[in-house]
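3.2 Worked example (two chains)
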Amino acid sequence: MTKQNYHIILADDDEDDQIFFREAMSETVSSVTLNTAKDGIELMSMLAHNLPDAIFLDLNMPFKNGQECLSEIKNNWRYKNIPVVIYSTSSNIDQINSTFKAGANLYISKPDSYLKLKIILKKVFSLKCEEYKPQPEKEKFVLKY
């Protein structure tokens, strides 16, 4: 995602995870605007008004879950080219496979420490566009810290 100024949306219903992500992002990426959505309905509403450079998407959210949002994003001509990074506590192979098939660009299991989150964010933002867009090979889909 090598670029100068980023506009990112994090869709995650856990307020602590949002704070954790925001702080790590501010220490990792020099110029970023981060907006947060607390559920899938809010995310889709935000997309209708402003297209981000990327979406970090939790799978387990109320009202409209991440899998439903991913499907809606990738099946909409206006949104389908926005890179979607799955950002989930799950490392379930079935969920990984299903998000890959649905068109997600990267998959990250939420790290258990602040340092690991900063490491994985550095990896994501050091990727060149062709490494994740439109979609990487399956072997490169899951990012590890």
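3.2.1 Second chain
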Amino acid sequence: MEQILIVEDDMTLNNGLCQALKDNDRQIVSCESITEAKEQLLLGMVSLILLDINLPDGNGIDLLKEIKEKSPQIPVILLTANDTDKDIVAGLEQGADDYITKPFSLAVLRARVNTQLRKIKPDNNTGKYVDETFEFDYNNMIFTAYEHQIELSKTEQKLLRILTDNAGITVKREALIDRLWTDGAEYVDENALSVTVKRLRDKLSAQEKIKTIYGIGYSWVKENG
């Protein structure tokens, strides 16, 4: 599932962006400051960022620079009320993938967002993960490990998809719990995640592939990585 992070302090515009970009296969996360955005980025899972330049606790360009240093693969579209060449050039030089000047058409913004998302997920459109040992066909729910087909529960399938879609990236426990148990339950025992990870490891014989980052979360080890 795609996750779009919106960093915009104008609440009316923020809400409008959330509604305009809403989709069944997409999660929208809204922030109104750099501080909130950094907290959300620590959870991982972000597919694309819409970033306002002028924020109450700092300059969006500085956050852009930090994002691109740590996670250059995440596309960032700048939202700016400044249409001078200086502001636009500064953003592009720090790695912005696109920019749009306020006021703007939501239809145009949606098109630009979709363009950036298509660039980063050509391999995911097949709904498959394949390496030398494993083959996971998420569309048809066929999971093969060491040439043997494995039966996985729905929760195990969701966990595996999140990990392989973010191969090489540590996914925080909090983010996994939030994504796996979205039935509105007020409380989920954190031990449930540990148990699910163990069962998935055992079923796939993936003890070396699903890595525990102690005190933080889990990572699917990339090939040659």
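3.3 Remarks
The chain has a mean pLDDT of 87.
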